[in-house]
Fold:
Amino acid sequence: MASSTDVIGPITKNVKDAGLIMDIIAGQDPLDGTTISRGTESYLIENISVKGLKFGLVKEYLSEGVDEVVKAAILDAVDNLRAAGVEIIEVSLPSLPLSLACYYIIMPAEVSSNLSRYDGQRFGYSNLNAKDLNESYNRSRSEGFGKEAKRRIMIGTYVLSSGYYDDYYHKAMQIRTKLIEEFDSVLQKVDFLIGPTAPTVAFEIGNKTENPLEMYLADILTVAPSLVGVPAISIPTKSSGKMPVGLQLIGARGRDKEVLNVADSILEIVK
Structure:
């Protein structure tokens, strides 16, 4: 979909299973320019003590727009972490509120560019009843792509078009650079960052399909790690009704194994 942000995000029953999957999928693929090499050590979980670690509680992750139920669950988890010997420091990432807008400019732009190859001639679905080349293009793309793909292609084509490139795409890339600098700076002062995974408790499947804007807003707290290129994991904390509230743990670039180990170690603490 979007080359610079796409990553495989396994959904597992526990952190140990996530480490097992990472052992299989991590590493460089010579046919994929977005992959990186890895060391020889395994991602399998090791038992570690979190006492003495320094966690940065991101101020912007608990600001306006985050449900009170979610805030309360995260702050309870923070109290439990303090009691377990973790040092909690409030940190700020000033450009974080711009990350969602930044993501929804860069991602559709890359979608538009990447999916242009699926024209019914070389790749993807092809309508075999078209009478000429133009009809083949039109029918193959209109029938082959779903609503969401079309929406993202249209937005991406718009932000990359002449006259709008500098106003949208170029500025979004500047914000991305600023976000990278802010994350790098903060992660030099603390070991990990924490905050909620989503601004609301999980909604039921299909509940927001007819409202794409609400669906996009649900990503507001998770898009920044993808833009910046740092490892992050979501683990369940206290429940609200039947649904757990997600706690997000973010580490510095390349510290995927440490993120897994710490997430496994705090899983019972934050519940």
User: Anything to note?
Assistant: Residues 15-266 form a domain with the Amidase signature (AS) enzymes fold (CATH 3.90.1300.10). The chain has nine helices and five strands.
